[in-house]
Here is the input.
Amino acid sequence: MDARTVLFYIFSTVLLFAAFRVITARNPVYAALFLVLAFFQASAVWLLLKAEFLAISLVLVYVGAVMVLFLFVMMMLDINVDSLRKGFWKHFPLAASIGALIALEMAAVLMGGFRTTEDRSLTSAASSAANTGAQFSNTKELGKLLYSQYLLPLEIAAVILLVAIIAAIALTLRQRKDSRQLDPSIQVRVRAEDRLQIIKVPPARPAQQPEPAPIAAAGGETKP
Here is the structure.
């Protein structure tokens, strides 16, 4: 057993533990932190598999953006953990059976497809790299596979994500009474005379200087 195998087992063990703690942690903040740990371990496993692009993308996108946003939202919101856990054991058998069914379906589909596809892709990539004499780049090969062999699934995933984004915006959009909303169509049709009105004002007369008051003399007489 070499060092790479030992590291693989270590990272995989920590990954499984972190994934288990994500679904069993009582505090949602702790669950999010365990999910961050799971992402780091998955990126380490991908580094062992020489998939540097996927490992860096996982750390930058999920850990650096998504999970930080989740942590900020969960820390800012007053989440009642007791209300979230109501009915957990009541629906646990149904959820566990559905999860097991999905896992079996994914295993049945992926176990047969990954072997032939991986062998064919690795053989073609190794042969092309050996023929050209250039250095092998997994990022380049991944781009070729995504935009040639897996172009249709990539487009379907993009459409699903777009629909999810639009649905999330539509569900969370709330109109507030204390906020002012602008209509772009009205702004486009506005005219200059509707926004600015010139009013002619007559010139004002110069202010009159008040006359100086008489100065009283020492003997009680006023001096003009």
About this structure: Strands lie at 215-216, 222-223. The first strand starts at residue 215 and ends at 216. The radius of gyration is 36 Å. Residues 89 and 100 are 17 Å apart (CA to CA).
